[in-house]
Design goal:
By secondary structure, chain A is an alpha/beta fold. In chain A, 29% of the residues lie in helices and 17% in strands.
Amino acid sequence: MTQDVIKVTINNKDIQVPKGARLIEVCRDSGFDIPSFCYYSDLALQASCRMCLVRIEKMPKLQTSCTITCTDGMVVTTQSEEIEKAQRAMVEFLLANHPLDCPVCDRGGECELQEMAFDWGGLEERFTEKKNYYAERYLSPMVANDPQRCILCKRCTRVCDEWMGEDAIEAGGRGANTVIGTYGGWLDCSQCGNCIEVCPTGTLLDATYRHQARPWELAQTVSTCTYCSDGCQMSLGARGGELMRVVARDRYVNGLNGEFLCIKGRFGHPFVNHEARIRTPMIRYKKGGKLIPATWDDAIRHVASKLDSIANKHGRNSIGIVGSPRLTNEALYLLKKFATDLIGTDNYAVTDSVNLTPFFANLGAPLATHRDIRYAKTIVLIGGEPEELQPLTGKQIRQAVRNGGARLIIFNSVPIRLREQASQFIHIRPGAEEAAVLALAGGATDSLVSRKMGIETAELEKVRGTINETEGDLIIMFDGSLSAAAQSALAQLSYLLRADNRRVLFHPLPLYNNSIGALDMGMTNGAIDVTQMLDAAGRGIRAVCVAGSFLPEQLRGREESLAKLDFLMVQELFETDTTSFADVVLPAASFAEIDGTFTNNDGFVQRVRQSIPPVNQSKADWMITDQLARELGVEFGFGMSASAVFNEIAMQVPGYAGLRYPLLKDESKPVQVKHDIAVQRDISNELETVRTAVEQMDESPEKHNDTPDVGHELFKIRTLTDKVAQFHLLAAGNPRPESLNVSPLYQITLSDDLRAEAVVAGD
Amino acid sequence: MHIEAIGCEPLQLRRVHLENSRTLEVYRRNGGYEAIKKVLDSMSPDDVINDVKKSALRGRGGAGFPTGLKWSFVPKDSPKPKYVVCNADESEPGTFKDRYLMERDPHMLIEGMLIAAYALGAKTNYIYTRGEYRYLIDIMDQALAEARAAGLLGEKILGTDFSCEIYTHTGAGAYICGEETALLSSLEGMRGHPRMKPPFPAVSGLYACPTVVNNVETLTAVPDIIKMGGEAYQKLGTEKSGGTKVWSVSGHVNRPGVYELPMGYDDMEKFIMEDCGGIANGRQLKAVIPGGSSVYIMRAEAVIGKDVRMDYEGLVAGGSSVGSGGFIVMDDTVDIFESTKNLTEFYKHESCGWCTPCREGTDWLVKIFKRIDNGGGRADDAQLMLDLCDNIEGKSFCPLGDAAAWPIQSAVKRFPEDFAKHLVGSRKE
Amino acid sequence: MSQQLTQIRPLSQPVHMPDEPATFSAAVEAEIDGHLAKYPVKRSAILPLMFIVQRERGYLDPAGVLYLANRLALRVTDIWEVATFYSMIQTRPVGKYHIQICKTLSCKILGEPLITERVCKKLGIKPGETTADGRFTVSMVECLGSCGTAPMFQINFDYHENLTPEKVDRILDSLP
């Protein structure tokens, strides 16, 4: 695409810029500092702080550079006495009613107003009147609020609306009485905390971190979120071996998510230093007996001897090796190597809920990055609920529609919240997602698939119309619960739907931070999957080593399986249903304590960096595997270096060829794995399989008519979120405390029934 | 209350003294709905716009923007619906002319809106009336019902293909909604914050559709323009400001009221001292604010013997501006420090809070006034106020910031003695 | 610290939301439908509807807010942000007679202070207060467009102009 280039002159310097460029961005890109508070890239323009004033020739007044679109020949001055006076005046106005007690403010040290006052403020304070006052309060268990520090830039209300689609927080009152808040003062929302993140002052504060530390005391470590598959970049703030907070503030980190995080990323971290972390290795010497603390050497020796004897007695394939899709690529790679090269078993698997192997085997086009999503022209979302399960993807979709004019087509049996942004919401029967794939692939008549989905055939014609009109990127997203045949057919859709002016990209929506990495590391290539392994317990499978825990849905109906094993070793952070059957439990280190990489749903390999030393006696999962191998007589030779493991990954896994940690250093330029693109091939067999399945589909299931509550997935209590008290409040319906001036945690007792009702084990 | 036309035949005030002037019958009997008939019978939308252009009619809300030009900005080929919105959010201190025009002659406004709607191709139109004028909304609703029943509103007006609806809408107490983009925000059910321009309402206004917002007095001038022709209307006034203008007069005059004068009326002194009956209680004129509170205050010396011409250019030459045409006349008992404090409190109360300088500046200025009032004045306070006004003026998001700054700037400069006496040695017990 | 603080109007004090929204008679519902029919976008009717809720319930109470949110398909916070912007929308109870005295310049210089003094003395309350029996609330308001007939006040929606202290007595005494 060619773009018209025009010339603008800024401070006597001629600059070529694309037509339509925004003046404030042009000035900043050209090295001219323009102060601003309310301007925030890719949010609705506000032009209210009046800091970014510039002088433009032929215009009568100073102009806000955030609202000016450059025109050819425009002559701009950004520095002059007049402009400086105006900017100093705005800072003076903002400071008039703002308390000047930075030392007691949680934002002190990383406050934009504080910095602006240093850079642009006057030397003397002329405001000597009484300041407007408003008491501090809590808006929710996550959000504390000090209204008198507010400068009304309204970034918070805009991100709440534009990023989250929640519109939960607004400005009330008028004039100097304007206050950010909600009706009744209590904030019911997904508690993402993005309003806190974008707040330039100490107005909206992290209630879980309040008065805990000062920003300059924290060692900031850039790392990758350990929750969903979006792979948000975050800054871990640690002090004295304790993880104090997680932020995405762009002064520390500039990843694919900008300053966005969801509730889990921002507030889900307290499990790291939680007192319930497993402290030492433990051995259960006798079935039914207690787990007894042991030294690492004893525990590893115990495991090695058990595996040795079981392998000798029942054969190598009687040993199952299981990894969690939460582990790093390094840990998963080593587990796979341990299973195949050392143990020599075909029985290895990951505890993921879905397996995307058929999709990647037939992948006809690259994965879409989050940036691609933001600038897509058409997005087709089949199943899934990204706003709850992959919140960054949800935000990108919302912005693509609202700011980019993209068209969103949703096939879902549930009227999910993203429907508000959809140009076409196709309300299908539960389980009819396969029929949607079949329809897109042209594998059956419209009348058949429409009947099975419970929709009018005209809906499908409209979808085809939208796709045919699309010029630019068409992104197909799907959650992973499609059958193998449907995944294969979907992965080849790119060949059917592409055109000269249309690129097709895929965006799978797996659930875990390293679901894609687990697949890349080959952990999904085992002879059996996790449930088959559990079903074979005590028969074909006699011993299992698991890094992580089985999911509740995998154990459901198989509660006896683990007891049937001769031997079970578990690497875990916390005691779980799985550890209760373990013969040896080894304390694993969390993501905050290790180095490594995760591969997200963009296919980006992103660094996980050690923020704090391992808690208690825990060790990185890959090191545990490494030590066990050594005990079994094989020296992998990685020493203490995750980087060395990654170097081997780069040699062994084709998509990772040539990668090294130093190449992954800059989180603002993430590196995409080169997944093999499959050639176009005949998929009629797969389509036949899907069609047969669709033909047999039951037409009786009712569609869900209620839009799910905000947070119905995010607030679910699982192993990690269970360790954060605030999540229990949210899971119990976010009860409103008596007083809003005191943290709700001090007012509401988490009674056992409150807790019990909310807890869903597993993670 | 005095209502009178001086120096011209009454146009806008033609029917106000008639019995039952607000009924359709009286309106029709006195030339009403002839203009819309003429328009529908013989004029194209462009003819109407051209006539209004020729009339040199300028917006009567305060900004004085040429009405015909404003109408011509509406894109003709836009597939979106178009709207005409009447700005009846009359809230400028000292201004009450629209109130009487609507109260006494509601059909004149309806006819003006119909003509505008025809010219611009608008099917749905609104009259945004300030919430306090509830009784006017009732009057307008009644008049609209009468017009509808008579086939002057709704489908196929007067048997032609022209169809058009007009609805009343209520504000709820916010001066800022008199600013046209804030009015549109409010009409959409939002907080009454002004919006960024461009895009101007003519391109993207109500519901992001092409919209023209005109003041009541602007729209009520339209029927006469059509009837007499644009040029004839213009000739009633001056070259740049055509026709007549309705002024509101309040304060210390013997005959406060609503006056219709030709644009370019010779002399402001004569107007105040004779037409309005002179200063009440035999006192002396001290100051006058001629255009609603948002203009420069004038000293008596700038009025007496100065032949200030009453039109846009004349008042600027005289040191102020037409604004909304609301005279506030003050005699020598008035302390200009107090009157300025009063207006500053008004602007602080009415600042919408969107932008920094207006929100914080008006709040700060009121606090300074109060401190001085409580005896805490300092010698450099006048200078501080001027500097703060300078920091607001031209830097705020909408003109309300300027409107708050101008009364203070002019008062401090033109009545230094009234400020000086408060600043030092006036600590109250 | 030398700077003292002034309390600004509390805007979002704790409000306990009722489970059920307010209900209205069929006639009022029809009136509301009439307003909604005027606009292509429901939200536009928010101010007219607030006045109706206020008229029916005395002020915009939580049940009324919930009603409006449901009726206009908005969030309660959307109702709140609008309600608190406009000075005529009451988010707390006011007296049966809301006396709104214009305090802006023309009224001010033509005797508003005498009117205010008389009203307050007669009712025994200060501006911003409500009498104990809930009959009267006195507020000071900005220009009501009655400058030519100053001084004046508005009781609920009725204008009372060219006031004198004696006239104030007569008006207040004549209220039912």
